[in-house]
Amino acid sequence: MTAHGEGERDEAGQPADVPSGSGSPAESIAVPAARERARAIPEAAVARLAVYLRVLSGLEERGTGTVSSEELAAFAGVNSAKLRKDLSYIGSYGTRGVGYDVAVLIGQIERTLGLTKKHRVAVAGIGNLGHALANYGGFLNRGFPVAALFDLDPDLLDVPVGGIPVSSVDDIVEVCREREVTIGVIATPTEGAQDVCDRLVEGGVVCILNFAPVVLQVPEHVEVRKVDLAVEMQILSFHVARRNQEAMVVPGVAGTDAGPPGGGANGNGNSDSAPERGDVDGMVVRP
Ligand SMILES: NC(=O)c1ccc[n+]([C@@H]2O[C@H](COP(=O)([O-])OP(=O)(O)OC[C@H]3O[C@@H](n4cnc5c(N)ncnc54)[C@H](O)[C@@H]3O)[C@@H](O)[C@H]2O)c1
């Protein structure tokens, strides 16, 4: 049997965030309420939780009941210490010698990520990017059905893309309210993005995923995430440059994560953004 929840032990018999030698978790730490815990989860860990969820869903489909932290870590491409730390944020410590109950862990991650209810998605701007997003079937499987598409090009109106007819931007408010859309994806040019955003919000949208290269103004209750693939490439470029610098600083041990001075893997105390060495077949695994 697999036990989960607050105060349970990891596979090494210790709560993941209590150093060995401490007393029982119940005695030594006050476990914060679930909401407090959710607030304390670092952004990078949230992204990894989504990856664990995808892996776990695949395992569940194949009828797997339990999974060890090493297996789950290898499937997700992270190291197992980081995985145990991430899961400790949601109060899941697994059971020694058994691992994690797949169904229970899926439920815990879904609750943490707010996925217990489906979020209907609207895409505005059905050009190159909008077409690709609207045609991608994978959002539905992950609980994000695309429910509405908007554009201002008269040639696109009523044309089905991915099975959904394109509506006019003039109808954003009405259609979003009617179809209970909560996530809006903006794939319009810069001009028009703020106007589309305002209409989506008026239509009840509370999350915006913005691809347009513009900073959007939104009310307090609306969450915005900006997607910029060029920034991601710049970050990759930074990591390669840092690697090369480290190889020069420590001659003869190229590839060793000697780390910059100041302690910690990246010298800023933020192990979440630090590259890590994993133990999967001698390969480096990164979140
Ligand atoms: N962040 C990224 O990594 C990334 C990558 C690719 C594209 N983009 C951005 O995504 C956006 C779309 O790129 P694309 O290549 O698909 O462009 P595109 O020109 O192919 O498509 C834009 C679509 O938006 C429609 N449109 C224009 N104004 C509108 C409005 N006010 N309301 C609704 N629809 C409107 C156009 O009719 C067109 O169908 C651009 O802003 C681009 O810079 C971002």
TrEMBL record:
The keyword Isomerase does not apply. Residues 51-90 bind DNA. Residues 114-215 form the CoA-binding domain. Keywords: Cytoplasm, DNA-binding, NAD, Repressor, Transcription, Transcription regulation. Coiled coil: none annotated. InterPro entries: CoA-bd, NAD(P)-bd_dom_sf, Rex_actinobacterial-type, Rex_DNA-bd_C_dom, Tscrpt_rep_Rex, WH-like_DNA-bd_sf, WH_DNA-bd_sf. NAD(+) binds at G125, I126, G127, N128, L129, G130. Its main location: cytoplasm. SMART domains: CoA_binding. Residues 1-12 have a biased composition (Basic and acidic residues). It is found in: Cytoplasm. Homodimer. Belongs to the transcriptional regulatory Rex family. Modulates transcription in response to changes in cellular NADH/NAD(+) redox state. HAMAP family: Rex. This is Redox-sensing transcriptional repressor Rex. It comes from Saccharopolyspora gregorii.
